[in-house]
Write a structure and sequence with these properties.
This protein is of the alpha+beta class. It is built from four helices and four strands, in the order H-H-E-E-H-E-E-H. The chain is elongated. The chain has one domain. 55% of the residues lie in helices and 18% in strands. It starts with 6 loop residues before the first helix and ends with a helix.
């Protein structure tokens, strides 16, 4: 779509095009961000430790509203939130015989968020282009 404009109208045309692009980007992000939160929850549930299954089943998402900024999603464990940081990172442990050791973290949350961020960027770019 080409349009001939004078020098004085050029600024207004650029501002109008940027405004239209911003509206399109906002609509695409409103569609892709909930999908990204779902993907993150599914990945964490699928890759979490499953001794009893309660830790993996506890992962969910929650929508949050910010005035003027739109919405965001928080992925969290509603039941076993106290152990998420222990399973994610390595830490020292003490057993019943008072000897110390260490346990290795599984990095499930970090891997899921890294993948989800990458997916969100590529999916947003794909939807904005086509």
């Amino acid at each position: 779509m080409s349009k001939t404009v004078g020098a004085e109208d050029f600024r207004m045309e650029v501002m109008q095009l940027l405004d239209e692009y911003g509206k399109d980007a906002r609509m695409v992000l409103n569609d892709t961000i909930p999908e990204a939160a779902d993907i993150c929850v599914k990945m964490i549930r699928g890759n979490s430790r499953k001794q009893t299954g309660k830790y993996a089943k506890g992962w969910t998402k929650k929508q949050q509203y910010y005035r003027g900024l739109g919405t965001s999603y928080v992925v969290y464990n509603r039941d076993r939130y106290r152990v998420a940081h222990l399973l994610e990172r390595s830490h020292r442990i003490k057993n019943q015989w008072n000897t110390y050791g260490s346990t290795v973290g599984d990095n499930v949350i970090r891997d899921a968020t890294d993948y989800t961020e990458q997916w969100l960027v590529t999916e947003t770019e794909k939807r904005l282009k086509g």
